[in-house]
Design goal:
The protein is of the alpha+beta class and 159 residues long. It has 4 helices and 4 strands. The longest helix is centred in the middle third of the chain and has 34 residues. It is elongated, with a radius of gyration of 21 Å. The two termini are 16 Å apart.
Length: 159
């Protein structure tokens, strides 16, 4: 990916790309996002869904904790008139930190630490979608059949 798009994604999602500036001995993210510019929108959408899920989960837990405190502190008479139930507070979701983002065998690979099953599903979907998106321009593409596997649209098949 060109350095401008790479930098933009890293600046837009600093928590996910926390390892971006570590040396090559500590993280493959030192080399940047190593895939074609055509997957920029796919990556941006995936990263947005990941970070939003983590942030929304934390906010929902905060609201539920505040609600539970109010219910526990309210008068007994009020609870008899309008029964209030405690809301669930779940374990926090560990922040996703990208360890490597690259193209391999024609598809997107996103290696990371943290997350939950929802985030795993978002990443699986993006990785699978990459097999139908031209890695040069982002148009609909198909994997080639010979040589290095690349996903290309008809206009970029020969590149």
């Amino acid at each position: 990916m060109n350095t401008g798009l790479d930098k933009y994604l890293c600046d837009k999602y600093p928590l996910i790309f926390a390892n971006r500036n570590l040396g090559p001995d500590h993280s493959p993210m030192h080399w940047g996002i190593t895939c074609g510019d055509g997957w920029y929108n796919l990556l941006d959408t995936m990263l947005h869904r990941i970070q939003s899920h983590i942030d929304n989960h934390a906010q929902r837990n905060k609201w539920n904790e505040e609600w539970n405190a109010k219910v526990n502190n309210s008068s007994i008479e009020w609870n008899l008139v309008v029964p209030r139930q405690l809301r669930p507070v779940s374990d926090p979701i560990e922040q996703v930190v990208a360890t490597q983002v690259k193209e391999k065998f024609g598809g997107l690979r996103f290696y990371y630490l943290g997350g939950d099953s929802y985030i795993r599903g978002v990443i699986d979907m993006a990785e699978n979608m990459s097999y139908s998106i031209c890695d040069v321009c982002g148009a609909v593409g198909t994997p080639n059949k010979d040589g290095w596997i690349k996903v290309r649209c008809p206009d970029h098949k020969l590149i």
